[in-house]
Automatic annotation (TrEMBL):
It holds the Pfam family SPL. This is DNA repair photolyase. It comes from Thermoanaerobacterium thermosaccharolyticum M0795. InterPro entries: rSAM_sf (IPR058240), SPL (IPR049539). One of its GO terms (molecular function) is 4 iron, 4 sulfur cluster binding. PANTHER family: SPORE PHOTOPRODUCT LYASE, SPORE PHOTOPRODUCT LYASE-RELATED. Gene3D superfamilies: 3.40.50.12110, 3.80.30.30. One of its GO terms (cellular component) is endospore-forming forespore.
Length: 338
């Protein structure tokens, strides 16, 4: 498991050095489950997670090397309207939420680095309140909900169990279409439980040279493709997210080979749809990340700010290259471009 890059295996499961727990959730069943799994961690009670997570002058990259977990209660702003920066796949009522803030992976381009002052992981254990909020939204309408934009729930599944809980909830809510974004190669989730038709698994894929350059600690392209193949064999709805498209020398050749490899390993008829989009983020986040990642190749290529969004100067050309390769294999109607 790639989560082991940050944790060590113990008899009880996985271990982070410290777990900070809000007093309000010390007796919550999810808290007990996590503490029981991470038995050797040092547990420290705190009043509010923000006092620890939002402290000024934290070193994000140093924290990434030795992550801690904070178990907390989400008290407000549980569900958000979908961002204009994100693909809505034609859904009018598009929302996103996250039980977890931050990620175990360490992708150079990740916007979370410019969003939060801390790299530590916040786990909101009160998942029942998330379900209550979705119940309210879906009383008289259908919604599209992405549950994994600010983390990778599938990677955290071994000790949170959140994804299984969301899937069980989705089985009971027919007004909900739920998207799970992931880079994980964890196959257990769909081997062990029944996945309903209103759940879409969206795998983020990029060429292996890009993964090696920018997506530290993530599963290889080959591992992800093998997991996707197993998922489609189980009859799951699988989306491919080629995002963010990153520039690299020999760009055209590398992305062509990547798309050929994708559809050679996963037949196009088994893919629900594909979305593509170039590297982009709001300019304020980009400034913060540039300070953190001064030596990253991200900022070595020509970029510009378009309507407050930081992206490549030739982003339209890059999208066209990828799109034209995709439509050799898959209907245009199933390719979404952002």
């Amino acid at each position: 498991m790639f989560i082991m890059m940050y944790c060590e295996r113990t008899k009880g499961g996985m271990r982070f050095s410290h777990i900070y727990v809000e007093k309000d959730v010390i007796d919550h069943p999810v808290t007990k489950k996590i503490l029981n799994t991470l038995k050797r961690s040092v547990v420290i009670e705190i009043e509010r997670y923000g006092d620890f997570f939002n402290r000024p002058k934290q070193n994000y990259l140093m924290q990434k090397k030795s992550l801690n977990i904070i178990l907390a209660k989400k008290r407000y702003d549980i569900i958000y309207e979908g961002s204009y920066m994100c693909e809505d796949f034609g859904n009018k009522d598009f929302y996103h939420t996250s039980n977890i803030l931050n990620c175990i992976y360490s992708c150079d381009y990740c916007y979370l680095q410019g969003m939060y002052p801390s790299a530590n992981i916040v786990v909101f254990v009160n998942i029942e309140d998330f379900f209550d909020e979705v119940d309210k939204l879906t009383q008289d309408r259908k919604i599209y909900l992405s549950i994994s934009y600010e983390t990778d729930l599938m990677a955290f599944e071994p000790f949170t169990g959140f994804l299984s809980m969301w899937i069980d909830y989705a089985k009971k809510n027919k007004n909900l279409t739920m998207e799970v974004r992931t880079k994980s190669a964890n196959v257990n989730i769909f081997e062990n439980i029944e996945i309903p038709d209103n759940v879409i698994f969206s795998w983020s894929l990029l060429p292996q040279p890009i993964i090696s350059m920018y997506e530290k600690l993530t599963p290889s392209l080959d591992m992800r493709l093998r997991t996707i193949k197993k998922a489609v064999e189980k009859g799951l709805k699988v989306r491919i997210s080629i995002e963010p498209i990153m520039y690299i020398e020999n760009f055209e050749e590398i992305y062509k080979d990547f798309i050929d490899m994708l559809f050679n390993k996963v037949p196009h008829q088994n893919i629900h749809d594909v979305n593509i989009g170039t590297f982009r983020m709001v300019k304020e986040q980009a400034k913060k990340i540039e300070k953190l990642r001064e030596t990253s190749p991200i900022f070595c290529y020509e970029t510009e700010i378009k309507n407050g969004i930081f992206t490549y100067k030739n982003d339209e050309y890059m999208k066209d290259v990828v799109y034209n390769e995709l439509v050799k294999y898959i209907d245009k109607e199933r390719v979404f471009v952002k």
